[in-house]
Amino acid sequence: MTLDRAAGLAETARALAAGDVTSRALVERTLARIEAAQGSINAFRIVRAEAALAEAEAADRELAAGVSKPLLGVPVAVKDDMDVAGEPTAFGCCGEFPPVAEDGEAVRRLRAAGAVIVGKTNTCEFGQWPFTEGPAFGATRNPWSTAHTPGGSSGGSAAAVAAGLVPAALGSDGAGSVRIPAAWTHLVGIKPQRGRVSTWPRGESFQGITVNGTLARTVADAALLLDAASGNHAQDPHRPPAVDASAAVGRDPGRLRIALALKPPFTAVPARLLPEVRTRVVELADRLAALGHTVEEADPPYGQIGLTFVPRATAGIAERVAEAPFPALLDRRTLGAARLGRLLSGAPLRAARRAESVLHHRIGGFFTSYDVVLAPTTAAPPPRIGALLELSGFATDRAMIAACPYAWPWNVLGWPGVNVPAGFTADGLPVGAQLLGPANSEPLLVQVAAQLEAELRWHEKWPAPPVTERSTAA
Questions:
Q1: Can you give the residue ranges of the Amidase domain (predicted)?
Q2: pLDDT per residue over 365-398, tens digit each?
Q3: Residue of 23, 145, 153, 441 marked catalytic
């Protein structure tokens, strides 16, 4: 049996468990796809060809012995901000980085579930921007249009899944960095509750705003990878109660009260929802209403939430820069953000952290009237490659806020959000919408996302294979 690129995570795991295919054969095919697409998509920073084949052979021995694990022998990818033993963690930066000694906790849990880590995917420098480009690795391109970015900062993971190179991948989300590339590559992207998937060896990544999440073509696959990666290191500061995301798939959520939130949260520079994106999101709201939910326009009481985001984000950058082995090679915008972070890392940062409980109370009150928020994931479709690469720091911030003003408040709150595909622009560029909930609401969000998927069948739409992959396959 040969599984094609359309085979998802769960389907691949079933085929392996049934003995229909070997992990070695799957990994060989995966590595061939990655190599064929690297020149056009450039999704991977590191491809672990030799190590992955050895891991696949070990998985085949376990499968032959009747061992049962959720992802035994399944090839997956992780973002290059996650530690994989024996590989460097450059996090989008230039320079030769030493290999790390141990897996990060999320990677350790994927391995415990039996997954084969085929490589580490590209990300922009320290995950700061909604594009995946830089002098360290070039430009990662969107499989739906290689002239456009797949988004960021988990753009490599999104591109790898959207192109069918791997069935699912881990990313991380500090201001939308899973949800934005998921929106711009027609994927499901789950940003879970803070602490759901460990960020260890950093108990709090970027002062607690960054979490690890999953990207896949279907809700079931994204939930399966989330369950496999979930769990905590003994020293993690955030340890939410366990949830079973996979069990929520296909479960009827009942009739819900859904707030359609189209107004961007307050930002210091203008942000406007483009009409074409608005239309796609409203169409999704209409579909939810047709499914029996009560949908009405209402915006969460965000207030001045942005004042609490900036100190945490920039202090996190300052911490990374202080550890960087090659500071002279860092982007000038990174150094500027670090300078601001050092200025804000005292009283402003402490005030920002204290404000979180106030925000939880105020915005949590909104969920006494509504069960779920539906909002645009971005205000615009993906920009062209290079459009933001050479801008100044201020101009980059303006462009980011204009394109992506919707995702970051849920990072301040630490609550779950799920991007779902919302369709395409007239130019064929994907856009998405996010389902947002209060603390530990992943099961409910997964239920609603799966309900939409059953109606819209978004996973059946595929980008054309890259030219190099088509010629190789031929």
A1: 26-445
A2: 999 999 999 999 999 999 999 999 999 999 999 9
A3: 153
